[in-house]
Amino acid sequence: MNILGHFNYWIVIVLMMMGFYTVISRGNLVKKLIGLSLFQTSVFILYISAGKITGGTAPILIDDHGEAAEAASHVLYSNPLPHVLILTAIVVGIATTALGLSLVVRINEAYGTVEEEVIHNRDESL
Q1: Rounded distance, CA 57 to CA 107, Å?
Q2: Model confidence over 9-37: pLDDT tens digits?
Q3: Do 30 and 114 contact (CB within 8 A), yes or no?
Q4: DSSP the chain
Q5: What is 7-51+79-125's CATH topology?
Q6: In the chain, what are the domain boundaries?
Q7: Long-range pairs for 24-27 at CB < 8 Å and ≥24 separation?
Q8: pTM for the full model?
């Protein structure tokens, strides 16, 4: 098995670990959201990579009769479902990131900072 033959999976692993490390190691809430977006992007790439079939074509049938139908029965089709699901996930991810950023803005207005440790210390002192 060729390691470079699955280059896209290595990219997924690197992006996923970078996003995960950013989420757990940073105290800045904006950086945490960026890490979550990076992690989410790696999952998108994983699903798109798994949905790709080498030599596959779009599942579009042109003619139901005669030679075209016989030729179409020997064609390798790609499943469009993973790509459609990822489009939906991208829209949900953008909405979630926008909501997270709006919460960070509100937290910044209330506490004057977006650093997790400072916010935690202020809550404990109350």
Answers
A1: 49
A2: 899 999 999 999 999 999 999 999 999 99
A3: yes
A4: --GGGGHHHHHHHHHHHHHHHHHHH--BHHHHHHHHHHHHHHHHHHHHHHH--TT-B------SSHHHHHHHTTPPBPP-HHHHHHHHHHHHHHHHHHHHHHHHHHHHHHHS--BHHHHHHHHHH-
A5: Helix Hairpins (1.10.287)
A6: 7-51+79-125
A7: 27/115, 27/116, 27/117
A8: 0.80
